[in-house]
Design goal:
The protein is an all-alpha fold and 160 residues long. The protein has one domain. It has 6 helices and no strands.
């Protein structure tokens, strides 16, 4: 899982496998919320919280990080989906005028990824060597990915 490596978790491989299993097990609630809610950020935390409450080790640092990783996978999937839809929508608009929307969206997305990576690495490092740093880093990536997903949707909806 990419973000686990970004914030330097030592247990990256195990967390990634668990996250994939947890996203399949607990992801339905987030996806249903995402489809139903106009405020997509109201769905933030649904998968992670359900996973942490139900899994035997869900309240441990490793378990909580795995649960947040699972939710991040779902948000990342939605972000990629919304990005592709928005990019196609902007490409259609660009073909009808002299617009540079697709280029601007692509540049903004690359800039956002660098921002997210730097911001969450900072969040992780602030906690020095304590175990809470893994939680802080995972929560940062999950939250910023959810926020970016909703922003991409908002941009498209403004233009529709």
């Amino acid at each position: 899982m990419r973000f686990i490596v970004l914030v330097g978790f030592a247990f990256a491989a195990a967390a990634s496998v668990e996250a994939q299993n947890f996203s399949a097990t607990y992801g339905k609630a987030l996806l249903q919320c995402y489809a139903a809610e106009s405020d997509k950020l109201a769905c933030l935390g649904r998968t992670a919280e359900a996973c942490m409450a139900r899994e035997e080790d869900g309240e441990t640092t490793v378990g909580a990080v795995s649960c947040m990783s699972a939710e991040t996978e779902i948000w990342d999937s939605k972000l990629n989906e919304e990005y592709k839809i928005t990019r196609a929508f902007f490409a259609d608009m660009d073909s009808n005028d002299d617009g540079q929307r697709v280029d601007a969206l692509t540049k903004a997305q690359h800039t956002w990824i660098a921002f997210r990576d730097g911001e969450c690495a900072l969040e992780y490092s602030v906690w020095d060597s304590g175990s809470v740093r893994s939680l802080a880093g995972a929560d940062c990536v999950m939250s910023l990915t959810a926020e970016r997903t909703t922003r991409i949707v908002e941009l498209r909806e403004l233009m529709e």
